Amino acid sequence: MSTLRALLLPLLLLGLAAPQALAAGGALPSTGFQEAAAAAGDTAAAVQDAAGEAQDGGLLEAIDAGAGVVVGWLGSVLFYPILSFETTTRDGNPVQVPLVIAWLVLGAIFFTLRMGFINLRGFRHALQVTRGRFDNPEDEGEVSHFQALASALSATVGLGNIAGVAIAVGLGGPGAIFWMVTAGFLGMSSKFAECTLGQKYRRVRSDGRIMGGAMYYLSLGLQERGLGGLGRVLAVLFAIFCIGGSLGGGNTFQVNQSLGAIRQTVPFFDQYPAVYGLIMTVAVGIVIVGGIKRIAATAEKIVPFMVGVYVAACLFILLTHLGHIPGAFGEILAGAFRGDALYGGFIGTLVIGFKRAAFSNEAGVGSAAIAHSAARTEYPVREGIVALLEPFIDTIVVCTMTGLVIVITGAYNNPEFNDLVVTNQGAALTSKAFGEKISWFPYVLALATALFAYSTVISWSYYGERCFTWLFGDKASIWYRLGFLPFVFLGSIVNSTNIKDLSDMMIFAMAFPNILGVAILSGEIRRDLNLYWDLLKRGQFRVYK
Fold first, then answer.
1. Which of 74, 126, 465, 529 has its CA 20 to 30 A from that of 314?
2. How high is the pLDDT of residue 40?
3. Domains of the chain
4. Which residues of 96-117 are buried (b: 16+ CB within 10 A; e: fewer)?
């Protein structure tokens, strides 16, 4: 393993230092970023000028070119079309069933059946555990069940719920919402399985710090089954993909999409987008230096507030348009099963729905297992049951509400907003949709969007850091954090479509090693679940609240 780390470290450090490396070529001098940041304290124009100089110097073009190479190579594997149809989506792309979507769907179905529909029978118990009914403060761990759930939710309840839903409906029509909800329901089982393993194979250090996640159960779990070589390969692949996902989909993409919504209502950030990037960079930096405890403490305050504000706003629109809701559901159901063009429309809607749901709730990609491994509990299955609430809250509740608003307002089919659809400016499209009915609502959405993006970024910084330190040791943690922050700033000045493509791919790529490993270990998950469920039915667990 040490040889592999020695080979990977220079490559990953090069990737983390990409902005600085490009700067050395003349695009942005190594001191230019620092000077721009300092100047921003005096005037907003100074920051914008620095961003303009970077753009003129070719930094963004270089980033686009580099991303294009990765997108082309990785996309040919992840999105290899195992089925193709003659019809096209709204953006002109052919309707196809990509390999990675089939992999996620089949994995979620397998785990749902293998675990005996734990997504249904474990729901009530999940609520009991989350509210602290079984919390034992003496159990090993760094955070409570609720804090672990909040930390994981802060990474998933984000721009996927605002931007992703709008993109899905814009490209696939209202029927995409039905398949997003279906994906969320099945994904609850995937979350349970991977987070149970995250707890089971975590490592508790002498100082009380928890080390866990897919890279641990892939390497250690498969080693116990005599598949150590395969486990190490899968773990390394997962770690690399997670680091890439943390920099793109969990970072730059979030800042970029949130800016797209905020600039609709705050003209200042439309004129000076780099200022928004700088604010987010500083805010993120303040939190991530404290590790999981500070991230969890922040998340448990932000997540309930931001979800509450957003859901309340959605309910306000829905309640003031009650007469339109039955028709909206009718459009969703009709669109979900439309069979035009030899079922190409049906398959296209299904694929788009599942794709955006996977990007939203991350079920099957293994990221949440890193946060849940830090929870205080004696029983790994218990934390897995808590984790199944994430896709329910993220996709079945929040995404459905967003989708209903998009359909009721008709924004997804409004010719005036077509450019927002084809350029994947989902957050801006949602802002337009809400603004159609409530003139002041885009301001509420702007606040919610900023909070969603911020909470997602801080949680993904932890995911990426854990994978980075697993590869290279604890001393490498500071290098990852220093490399992470420039990508926050870049989110305010890069093209969203390129980032979206790369973000999708890195996060989706995590699903291949993760689902394969979890499927191999599914037998022991089911045995542990049966034992736990028997103890629960016999009332063997102590109740604390």
1. 126
2. 38
3. 62-261+280-537 (1.20.1740)
4. bbbbbbebbbebbebbbebbee
